[in-house]
Every structure is written in structure tokens, then in C-alpha cells.
Amino acid sequence: MRWSFQPFLQKVKHEQSGFALPVAMLLLTVVTVMVSAVLYIVTSTSERVFRAMDTVRAADIAHAGFSNELALVRYGQVANLNQVGFDGGFFTVTQSVGKEPNTLNIHVLGMTTYGGRSSIYAVVQSPSGAVVSWRQSP
């Protein structure tokens, strides 16, 4: 009589039937969750960086508007500019008479085309253009 591995292999094969499919599905689920988490982190991080850069761009636009208005005050001109466009945004200047004599309240709003905003509130002496107080947000 000849000895054979055939009955042994059939027994092992029968005991392991259907084992590969659940393992493959579990592995695929784990990989899918990990890839989704990495994509979410990368997307949210890049979005945060873009918003921060947009806010800085809006602050730069507001500073440009304030410098423009300050130059007009120093030369004795008063201009309430509704909107002055820039590449990537615009600024709006509002001017009013201050509480103290010879002062002006200047409010400049800088906005980007993507919605970034920055405001500057300042009190300026009228003839000299010296800045008395300054506040910026954000």
C-alpha cells in the first residue's frame, strides 16, 4: 500500500474554506479607512493654510488702503473711497470726524476675492497725518 497526502490535503482544504474572503475584506476596509483619514488630514491642512494666506493677503490690501488714505490726509485731501480694486481683492475706506479736535476716524476694510477680510481702525490727526491710535483685526 502506498501512502498519500491526498486525504490530508483534502481535510486541510475543507477546514480553511471561506477563510480568505473575510480576511481580504477586513484588510480592504482597514486600508480604505486609513487612506480616507490621510486624505482628510491633507485636505483640511491645505485648506487651513489657504485661509491663513488669504487673511494675510487681506491685511496687506487693508494696509495699502490705509497708506493711500493717510497720504491723502497729509496732502489735505479727503476722500471716502467706496471700493478700490486690487489684483486679488479690494479695499473700502470710510472716514469720519473724530471726537478730539483736528482728528479723523479712518476705517479701512480689505477683502480678497476669496472672502478673506481684514479691518483697520485708526484715529489720525488731520493736518499732520500722525496716527494717534491704531487697531487691526484680524
> What is the H-and-E element order?
HHEEEEE
User: How many strands in all?
Assistant: 5
Instruction: Detail the poorly predicted runs.
Output: none
Broad structural category: alpha+beta
Task: Going across the biggest sheet, name each strand in turn.
Answer: 1-2-3-4-5
Number of domains: 1
Taking all residues together, what is the mean pLDDT? 85
Helix percent band: 40-55%
Q: Describe the oligomeric state of these chains in a short phrase.
A: single chain
How many alpha or pi helices? 2
Coarse shape: rod-shaped
What is the strand content? 25-35%
* C-alpha termini separation: 91 Å
Radius of gyration: 34 Å
Sketch the major β-sheet.
5 strands, antiparallel
Q: How do the strands and helices of this protein lay out in sequence?
A:
Layout: H1 6-15, H2 20-74, E1 84-86, E2 89-97, E3 103-112, E4 117-125, E5 131-137
Quick recap of the structure?
This protein is α+β, with helices and mostly antiparallel strands.
What does this structure look like?
With 138 residues, this protein is α+β, with helices and mostly antiparallel strands. The protein has one domain. 47% of the residues lie in helices and 28% in strands. The chain contains two helices and five strands, in the order H-H-E-E-E-E-E. The protein has helices spanning 6-15, 20-74; strands at residues 84-86, 89-97, 103-112, 117-125, 131-137. A five-stranded antiparallel sheet has the order 1-2-3-4-5. The longest helix has 55 residues, at 20-74.
